Structure formats: C-alpha cells, structure tokens
Amino acid sequence: MNELLKALNSFEEVERIYAAQDIAETKRPDMTVYLLNRLLLEESHAVRDAIVFALKNLPCSEIYDMLFKLFHSPDAYLRNAAIGIFGSEGNEALAFLISYMDHADGEVRKLILDALFATSVPRAIEAIRQAIDDSFVNVQITAVEYLGHLEDNESADKMIKLFQKKTEPMLRIAILEFFYMVGSKTDIMKIFSFLAPDDNFNSIDPLYLPQLINLSAKSGDADMICKILDSITHIEIYAEDIIHAIEQANRQFKDICKNDRIIEHIKRVMKKIKDQEVRALCEELLRC
Fold first, then answer.
1. Helix (H, G, I), strand (E, B) or coil at 152
2. What is the pLDDT of residue 138?
C-alpha cells in the first residue's frame, strides 16, 4: 500500500491516475481518506476524474464527514464530486444525508437533495418530499423537479396546495412541469381552476403558457385545449409548443385532431409560421 500511496502523490500525472485506479481495485475503505486528501490538492482534471471514479467504487462511509464539507467548497467540481460519491453509496448514505436536512445553509440543503436524488433508491423519495416545505425557494424548486422525475404521484395533493400558496414564478413553473410528468386529468383541471377561475385564460401571465399548453394536451380535453389557444394573441411565439402538444395529445387521444376547433387552431398556426418542419407536422395532423 505504501507504493500505491507514493504513486498517488507522484509528480507524474500518469502515475497518479494508475494509482487511483489500482486503489479502487483494492476495495479497501481505509484508502478512501488518502484519495480524498489527494483530490483536494489535485489540479489535473484527468487525475481528479480517476480519483472520483475510484471513490465511487469504494465504500466511503468512513469519509462522509469529509465529503459533506465539500458542499461548502467554492469549487463546483468538488461539490459535484461529493454529490456523485454520495449517490454511489445508495442506501448506505441515506441516514447520514437525511440527518443534515435541517442544515442552516439553504444552498447546502439543495446539494443534499441532489445527493439524495443521485442515490436512485426508493427510500430517498420520502426525504425529498420533506423539502417541499423548505423555507428556501431554490430547495423547493429542486424538490419539485426531482419528485417529478421520480414520478411521485403521492405528492400531487401537496403540490396543488403549494401552487395555491406560493406565487414565485419559477416554483410555479416547476409545479406545472411536475404535473405534466405525473398529474392526472383531475389534478390538471384543479391547477387550471386556480390559475384561471371561470376558465378566463386571458389574464394569465404568458410565462406559464408553454406549460399550460402541454398540460391541456395531456388532459385530452379538446375544449380546454381550445380555451387556452383562444387566449393566445401572438400565436407565432408559441406555434411550436402548440403543434408538438397537439401531436402528443393525438398519440394518446386519437380523436383530438378530428375536433373542428382543434383543426382551426392547427390552420391558424400554419398561417403564422414559416418553419418548414412545423408546417409539415401541421399538415400531418390535418390528415389524421
């Protein structure tokens, strides 16, 4: 082992890379501290990658505290390395990460969520759900995004309440995208009722229109799709969103493109755009 440690701190880049690879093959947890200490000093990107790869292939519970300190590092590489290494630990790292969920620094709490998501284990979902109520909006947005990717439909009711309570645009967009990935038609209609009471979509912030177009298409409700499209003045701005959303709806709900109002909106888009690919897709939808 002394020879490996000597090579890990060699002046030769290639020797340090080979040393990191050889240490990974030892499967010895006691070697992780040496790898991490070298990582903190290392300037070569290739060697850094070799060390991180090695740490991902070794049991790292002995250096969790040291890894966690990297969440405070000004070096983005080191922060991301810590996320990836914790992620490779899977279930083993959960208890440690969860114990810091109430950390005073919101940015650190966000990185903890990144690490929890990186573990790819089912038990992480419950911990990520807790962050929906975090006081730091970036943590909330991150939690919403991850729960969407994890298809956590059990969080739907909580997301609806959060949407009603919060008005921060980026958080609301994240929630809308969550429902596009996870939501049922009932969930989508609830969101619409909060954003546009009495189906009055004319007063909605245009910032939300791409998400609303997609959600209406996912609902399969032709009337709702048309109400949203009717409210759009500058149709050319959202033309691609509209046609791709209708295409997706047509794949799931076969009669959508036979609806007279949907047909009129497709034709309306065709009159406003020059993009040949979008026009070709419009023509395809009209032939359905």
1. coil
2. 97
User: In degrees rounded to 5, what are phi and psi of residue 123?
Assistant: -65, -15
DSSP state of 60: -
Q: Which tokens is 72 given?
A: 């405070």
Q: What is the pLDDT of residues 178-196, one digit of tens each?
A: 999 999 999 999 999 988 8
Amino acid at 12: E
Cβ burial, residue 165 (10 Å; 0-12/13-18/19+): exposed
Is 269:278 a contact under the CB 8 Å cutoff? yes
- Compute the CA torsion angle 271, 272, 276, 281 (nearest 10 deg): -70
What is the rounded CA–CA span in Å between residue 75 and residue 81?
A: 10
The length of the chain in residues reads 288
Tokens standing for residue 228: 């949203």
> Residues 275, 276, 277, 282: is their CA dihedral positive or negative?
positive
Neighbours of 111 (CB within 10 A): 25
The whole-angstrom separation of Cα 175 and Cα 255 is 28
Residue with the two structure tokens 């034709």: 267
User: DSSP states of 71-93 as a string?
Assistant: GG-S-HHHHHHHHHHHHHHTHHH
